[in-house]
Write a structure and sequence with these properties.
The chain has about 120 residues and is of the alpha/beta class. It contains 5 helices and 5 strands, in the order βαβααβααββ. It is about 45% helix and about 15% strand.
Length: about 120
């Protein structure tokens, strides 16, 4: 099972729940990813708040979380989805997940605009 974690699933207040679910699915052979967009959003948050990103870096290393690139096909797929300007990044993340045959774990219901309900796990 392939899973893309959205920014909201990795926020400090949700990380405990996400970590528990990660361990369960990881032990069952799950593969976990974040898009390069999510990686940017998380690092931007830490640096904007002048906080250390050390815990986030350790989390990535300890879970073997892969940062997936955004490619041209993802941008083209996202554009076909005709997202509102406020949903551009979510559409790109959804396109990355779709290309990989993955689900998205998130607390953002906007992903249901771009992916079938069976491919979105809401926290």
């Amino acid at each position: 099972m392939k899973v893309f974690l959205d920014t909201s699933a990795l926020s400090d207040e949700r990380r405990g729940l996400t970590s528990e679910e990660l361990l369960k699915h990881y032990s069952a052979g799950g593969q976990f990813y974040i898009s390069a967009i999510t990686h940017l959003q998380i690092l931007w948050g830490y640096f904007s708040a002048k906080m250390s990103s050390e815990n986030y870096s350790r989390f990535i290393e300890s879970t073997d979380l892969q940062v997936a690139p955004v490619i041209r096909a993802d941008a083209e797929e996202a554009a076909k989805m005709k997202p509102a300007s406020s949903d551009l990044l979510d559409a790109l993340i959804a396109s990355c997940a779709k290309r990989s045959g993955a689900s998205v774990w998130t607390s953002d219901k906007d992903f249901l605009k771009f992916l079938p309900k069976s491919k979105v796990r809401l926290f």
